[in-house]
Amino acid sequence: MADRRRINGPVGPTTPPVYDRPLPRKAVQQRGDDAVRKIFLKTGVTPSASGSAYLELEKPNATGPSNTSLKLTCTVHGPRALPRSAPFSPHIILTTHVKYAPFATKQRRGYLRDSSERDLGVHLETALRGAIIADRWPKSGVDIVVTVIEGDQPRDALEYMRDEGWDAMNVLAGCITVASAAIADAGIDCVDTVAGGVAALVAREEKSEPVVVLDPAVADYHRIYAACCVAYLPTRDEVTNIWFKGQLPGADAEIYNKLVEQSLVACHNANRVIVMALKEAVPQGQDVPSTT
Description:
- By secondary structure, the chain is an alpha+beta fold.
- It has 3 helices and 9 strands, in the order ββββαβαββββα.
- The protein has helices at about 115-130, 165-185, 255-280; strands at about 40-45, 50-60, 70-80, 95-100, 140-150, 195-205, 210-215, 225-235, 240-245.
- Strand 6 and strand 7 (about 210-215) form a beta hairpin.
- The longest helix is centred in the last third of the chain and has 29 residues, at about 255-280.
- The mean pLDDT is about 85.
């Protein structure tokens, strides 16, 4: 007997439709080395959570109907008391969870977290631990869940052969930024708002010289030699986490320093977006403390 309550899919494999005329491609405009993509950030998107935030990253050279490339959502649950069976902790216990949606990337993700997602969760926990004032909530816990709705990959390309995990750097920077806004939305005391930024050493063409750029879009460059992701507290001028990936052409300390400095510039830009989003969430008529 057929199951009438379930919509069954096709029995055999299916192929996507092929159009006779391809869509016209827009003229690709190269961004400057110091240009960053626009960020959309909004807090309070999940009423059932203690705090939440949603982040979108602009896609400048979009050829499809969507002009965004990275979409993240973050929910904060807590602080809440730990169970009585848990040992006493003089500070808050922070738990971070980063998970890609199954449809976030061109290669379908599984429902269980893989090693790359666990690594992102460890880096996110390290970045946020330096900003939260943990001594104010003894024997308490807070859960921070970040869901990657859409990764920073070119979905309109027929085949993406240069997927070496470089988009994870932009994903981590976005996770740090959206989690910081969600923590502030939850009312958890922090020493400062932590922001994430990325800089990379790239080559635009096959024979071009490597240059350091801000906020790199992986699909816009021929090759990426190295990338640096930094979590930064602008007011306190402190770095809570740094992640370097790749190999440089030579052992030149100036390139390392320039990557970190440019990452801090991207962090300042992300921090301004966080401050503006938090100011918009404040009810009208309430004073907003000034930040420098």
